[in-house]
Design brief:
heterodimer, A: six-stranded mixed β-sheet, 8 helices, 6 strands, 37% helix, B: alpha+beta, Arc Repressor Mutant, subunit A, 4 domains, four-stranded antiparallel β-sheet, extended, DNA repair (chain B), nucleus (chain B)
């Protein structure tokens, strides 16, 4: 499969869609705690919003077998409620939604292995490829995720597996905060051997659902 | 938009030209750091972000270059130059001639705070129970435009009495500098720059005025740095929200009245408190440097028979149209006129170009005709250009006139010689006279001497 060339973008405005893995099965075994992870991600999201006033951020939390949109920077700002005090809108709103979301978690021990889901995921990746939306992946698990590697590869995104999770913010900012326009001028991590084995999807599907933050980036329609 | 010479400098260039101590002072304000970061070229923004948490050691120029692909080297240079110019990077060259950069520490810590805490507004909006009914966004936009038009009208025709703003006459004279010329006892007339100014879009006009306002501030005893920081801060407020006046410093309190005259804010008075409401003009201030998202709706329809219908109640529009068209009659919401040869000649004489007129007509085309391509009929635009070209029919060439040739042979030889040098402009063989270009005059003289 040939990877798409990234489109020529004239400006540095981005719409960043973050898929945040909030699956408790993964975070229970992870080397970095979810709250630590979240603080890196929040700083990263702030830096996206800082870079350009037209930038937008959408966060989708993905769980074990569900997902929900929990934050959209373009929706009108929530009024500060007194209990949140001076806590900035992004945090308060996001944390609240994240809590609501995780309360609704159906905690089940038996993961579903329906092949139909695989088809849906691949469809999503192919349509991202077709509409030239790069999928970047940042993977904090123990082994490389062949699945995400492939997804990033065919959509022209970047796949990173940070060596030091305590410096996660620096990885996020260095690689993923790069707008598509600047990507054509900067040295970014290149795939060092993508695992193309088709079997990997089925063989590792459950273990590799532990992606930390996949991120789609899209130039605004305007 | 016609390329306008008088607006060449951008706001950030102005910031960059401030002395070092003033710049360092500016960076103590979080909002300025934010606005400045956003104004940087994309690569420069990336560098700042990547170095934000690299604390101690300065980074070498070599390391920085390694981040960039070969294609991007020119952009890299532009980015670095800008960062140094704005004193965000300080450059040091050590004994081994190795160049290193260090991030401005105030700038750095402010942005770090921003990343940790997220964007915070400069001041809290007032609760709705104190302020009664606030104007809607549409009303506010309308207010801003009206205020701005009144200011423009005052600017271009100071004699009109219904166009009063609270700007002092000395302040108005500062704005008029370069736009109007005043001869003794005559009404002031617009200069070429003035016409160009009127044909610009609102944002560009606003920037010109703000620039004059800032550059003149020292004479009024106001520190330009204070002014710049307040204007940038203002752009981070939310359009349409009310902010209490008592949160402003004394200087800011004076400035806000001027800004209200320009339509940047609306001032309102409650029973006990007073507040200001930023309009779109203010919140777009830091954005408007690059793009003009604040577009006015067009109003002009031009027909193939050179008649022009302008759906506008604005006196400024009428004044602008009069510059190049013959206004025939004016209804409450409609100006009807014709583009004639005479009216255009008047315009050309005043220094307006055909391209400026055409781009004005195109940019202000009524929505009904704006969808059409071309929005202004081709025969009209062509004719406007042709009439302009008519005026440029005469070409001046410095030349020399020769007569009283001793014989026809000498005359013809001279003509041939001039033709050889392709310098013959005119000859009259009957009376033996010719005109040649000035540049071959010396050669011609040599040649004629040889002929004797």
């Amino acid at each position: 499969m040939t990877s798409v060339q990234s489109k020529l973008y004239a400006d540095d405005v981005s719409l960043v869609v973050v898929l945040l893995d909030a699956n408790p099965f993964f975070w229970a075994t992870s080397s970095i705690s979810f709250s630590q992870f979240l603080s890196h991600v929040l700083a990263f999201l702030n830096s996206i919003l800082l870079l350009n006033q037209l930038n937008q951020v959408v966060i989708i939390a993905t769980g074990h077998n569900s997902c929900d949109c929990i934050y959209d920077s373009s929706s009108p700002p929530q009024t500060h409620s007194s209990e949140n005090g001076a806590l900035p809108a992004l945090y308060a709103h996001l944390l609240q939604r994240l809590e609501e979301y995780s309360e609704g978690f159906p905690i089940r021990a038996t993961p579903s292995t329906a092949p139909s889901e695989y088809v849906a995921i691949m469809n999503a990746i192919f349509s991202a490829q077709r509409s030239m939306v790069p999928i970047d992946s940042c993977y904090v698990g123990a082994h490389n995720s062949a699945f995400l590697q492939q997804a990033s590869h065919i959509t022209g995104g970047v796949y990173v597996k940070p060596q030091h999770t305590d410096g996660l913010f620096q990885y996020l900012v260095t690689v993923f905060a790069t707008d598509l326009h600047s990507r054509s001028f900067l040295q970014l991590p290149r795939p060092a051997g993508v695992d193309f084995r088709a079997s990997s999807v089925f063989g590792q599907a459950q273990g590799d659902a532990s992606s930390a933050a996949d991120r789609k980036r899209k130039a605004p329609e305007t | 938009m016609p390329q306008v010479r008088i607006i060449a400098k951008s706001f950030m260039d102005m910031v960059a030209s401030l002395p070092a101590s003033k710049l360092d002072k500016l960076y103590q304000n979080v909002f300025i750091c934010e606005a400045i970061l956003r104004s940087l070229p994309p690569l420069a923004k990336k560098y700042v972000l990547q170095l934000l948490y690299v604390d101690d050691a300065p980074i070498t120029a070599k390391t920085l270059e390694e981040w960039v692909l070969a294609d991007g080297s020119s952009k890299h240079k532009v980015a670095i130059d800008r960062l140094i110019q704005l004193r965000i990077f300080t450059e040091t060259v050590d004994r081994k001639k190795e160049v290193t950069y260090k991030l401005n520490s105030t700038f750095q810590s402010n942005l770090q705070k921003h990343l940790k805490n997220g964007g915070v507004l400069p001041r809290e909006a007032m609760p709705a129970n104190v302020t009664a009914r606030l104007p809607s966004l549409d009303e506010l936009g309308q207010y801003a435009l009206e205020q701005w038009e009144r200011f423009l009208l005052h600017l271009i025709s100071p004699s009109q009495t219904d166009a009063r703003t609270s700007f002092s006459s000395s302040m108005m004279r500062v704005f008029q500098r370069g736009l109007l010329t005043q001869r003794d006892k005559e009404d002031p007339t617009l200069t070429e720059g003035g016409f160009q100014f009127l044909l610009m879009d609102t944002n560009a006009q606003l920037w010109y005025i703000i620039r004059e306002y800032i550059s003149n501030s020292e004479e009024r005893g106001i520190d330009p740095a204070d002014l710049i920081s307040f204007l940038l801060e203002l752009s981070f407020h939310v359009t349409g929200e009310a902010y209490n006046m008592n949160t402003l410093s004394d200087i800011q309190g004076i400035m806000i009245k001027d800004l209200a005259d320009l339509g940047l804010v609306k001032l309102q008075q409650g029973r006990k408190e007073s507040w200001f409401i930023p309009t779109k003009l203010a919140t777009n201030l830091s954005v408007s440097l690059s793009d003009s998202s604040f577009r006015k709706q067009g109003f002009v329809v031009v027909e193939t028979n050179f008649r022009m219908y302008a759906y506008s109640t604005s006196k400024v529009h009428c004044a602008i149209l009069r510059f190049f068209a013959k206004v025939e009659y004016q209804l409450p919401n409609l100006i009807v006129g014709a583009i004639t040869k005479e009216s255009l000649y008047d315009a050309f004489k005043k220094g307006i170009t055909a391209d400026q007129i055409i781009s004005f007509l195109q940019q202000n085309a009524h929505p009904r005709v704006a969808e059409k391509i071309p929005s202004v009929p081709e025969n009209v635009t062509d004719q406007i250009r042709l009439w302009e070209a008519d005026l440029n029919r005469v070409e001046m060439i410095p030349s020399h006139f020769y007569d009283e040739f001793p014989s026809r042979d000498v005359f013809e030889a001279a003509c041939d010689y001039a033709r050889e040098w392709s310098g013959l402009l005119w000859e009259d063989s009957k009376r033996m006279r010719l005109v040649v270009k000035a540049e071959i005059h010396m050669n011609m003289r040599e040649f004629l001497r040889g002929q004797k």
